């Protein structure tokens, strides 16, 4: 299997449909979360909604680059979640995450394996491979946080 197909598979596993590494994924963890749960603060932790927005923010930013655009995202804006005050707003955020996650994986699959060794936007960001691997690892990190926050909310 080519490296882009392997990366695409790993990306889909953490976001959409995998159970191999973490025995869960974003879609599985978030399927039964209400907007009230998603926006409930637990101590000093980020909310589930904030973590969901944060991951989507980076996925959307990388998609823009994959489609030939500029890298327009900035870390300082990655938690700037607009207020969620209704279930429909939460569902819309989730739907955008699922749509963009599939788009990310599909665009990745269309890349040549040789693209993985190319510079991603600027040398300071490293290669495409480094950034895509980083996106997968970053997603697993926040998936773990979401799973723990859900347990803390349930125990309340």
TrEMBL record:
Gene3D superfamilies: dinb family like domain. SUPFAM superfamilies: DinB/YfiT-like putative metalloenzymes. This is DinB superfamily protein. It comes from Chryseobacterium limigenitum.
């Amino acid at each position: 299997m080519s490296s882009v197909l392997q990366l695409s598979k790993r990306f889909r596993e953490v976001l959409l449909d995998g159970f191999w590494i973490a025995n869960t994924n974003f879609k599985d963890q978030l399927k039964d979360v209400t907007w009230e749960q998603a926006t409930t603060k637990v101590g000093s932790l980020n909310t589930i909604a904030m973590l969901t927005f944060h991951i989507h923010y980076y996925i959307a930013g990388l998609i823009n680059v994959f489609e030939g655009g500029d890298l327009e995202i900035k870390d300082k804006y990655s938690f700037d979640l607009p207020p969620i005050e209704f279930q429909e707003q939460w569902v819309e955020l989730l739907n955008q995450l699922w749509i963009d996650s599939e788009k990310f994986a599909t665009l990745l699959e269309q890349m040549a394996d040789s693209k993985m060794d190319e510079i991603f936007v600027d040398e300071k960001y490293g290669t495409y491979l480094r950034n895509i691997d980083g996106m997968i690892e970053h997603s697993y990190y926040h998936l773990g946080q979401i799973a723990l926050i859900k347990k803390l909310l349930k125990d309340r």
